[in-house]
Amino acid sequence: MKKTLMTGAAMAALVAGSVSAQDLSGETITVSGSWLSQEAEVIEAVFDIFEERTGATVKYVGSDSFEQQILIDSEAGSAPNIAIFPQPGLAADLASRGFLTPLKEGTAEWVRDNYAAGQSWVDLGTYANESGDEELYGMFFRVDLKSLVWYSPENFEDAGYEVPTSMEELKTLSDQIVADGGTPWCIGLGSGAATGWPATDWVEDLLLRTQTPDVYDAWVKNEIKFNDPRIVAAIEEFGAFARNDDYVAGGAGAVASTDFRDSPKGMFASPPQCYMHRQASFVPAFFPEGTVVGEDADFFYFPSYAEKELGNPVLGGGTLFAITNPSEGAQALVEFLRDPAAHEVWMAVGSFLTPHKGVDVSKFATDSARSMNDILLNATTFRFDGSDLMPGGVGAGSFWTGMVDYAGGKDAMEVATEIQSSWDALK
Q: For domain 2-137+315-377, is the CATH number 3.20.20.140?
């Protein structure tokens, strides 16, 4: 079934790629990850190319309990050759326990030179081992983008609005929409047991736009506390949008109670209940049925402040390949990810973004995907979703609930201090 994703001619063209192949005939490389169904078919098509070039056999197993299973297998000494981690936190934990093998020498230099914001990807894949020494363990492949603002081009055209290119222009536009009698934003934090997480993305994006990346990194590690004035200021930046009755559809009081899946629908009402919605690349799944991205809805980069000169930071997520059971084939398979062909297979299917500067962007399935990837390639800094890197009790606990409290009117410093206390209690 996996062979149907591309024609024989297309496969032949990709097999004849740029990364030199080695003869691994007879070697089997085991790989595990969380990709299932169509995603599993696509990664198997990527592995097909590697098999054709090297003679190796790649066996992939996907699991919806990957995070638990890889830990069990590593502790039992039965880990696959390669594990595909959906976030770096678990990989860093396994590296600290001696369960990961450093990537081939020269990989870090290659990533710096060939990935947009390359040092960011090196940093995200570099962890301390049992001895406390830091080495590169992870190669990122497939990225998600969060720093997006969605809008209706028709609504903008009817009102005479232009897409802003700086945070200053975005705030000016928001004020103009209010002056014209409209509402600039739809914001919803509701998500069942996970209510609050959309606000954490706002805060993380705004912190990257008001402070240097090293501040973000130190905050995620709790080296800078939640109630540090710089972090509190980022929370208050979110409040400038979410706690302004004039800015938000339904008023500030509706932010915490509106489900994030419902919140973008106001852009498509007539007249529009809002003009903009900040959310990740996956949000079109919750647009009204029949909405065509690129026509009925489009997006722009959640801009940085021109006056702060902090470049174009991007917030997102991604998956990384790490070696959990070393072999010659495992290192070769990770090295194969340097080849544009490994990326272009998935680009042609859809739902795939990459920081690889060498890919043929004409291979993207849609113009929208190509435009999203342009944002990624123009990034000066990429940072992983901060809440996903924090301890679960904070990143998926007190940070979520604290943002709900803040949206409801609680003081930012008070909320930040309570979140910090929850982190301190984990020690």
A: no
Determine contact, residues 150/160, Cβ cutoff 8 Å: no
As a whole number, mean pLDDT of residues 214-230 equals: 97
Structure tokens at 101: 């093998």
Q: What is the pLDDT of residue 1?
A: 35
Tell me: pLDDT of 20 over 80.
no
d(CA 118, CA 112): 4
* Distance from C-alpha of 2 to C-alpha of 405, rounded to nearest angstrom: 47
> pTM for the whole thing?
0.90
| 34-43: pLDDT as tens digits | 999 999 999 9
Domain ranges of the chain: 2-137+315-377, 152-312+386-424
Give per-residue burial for 70-88: e unless 16+ CB within 10 Å, then b.
bbebbeeeebbbbbbbbbb
Listed residue (188, 194, 197) closest to 257, CA to CA: 188
Average pLDDT value for residue range 102-112 = 98
Residue 330 has pLDDT above 70, yes or no: yes
- Closest C-alpha among 322, 330, 352 to residue 70: 322
Asked if 64 and 364 count as a contact pair (C-beta separation under 8 A), the reply is no
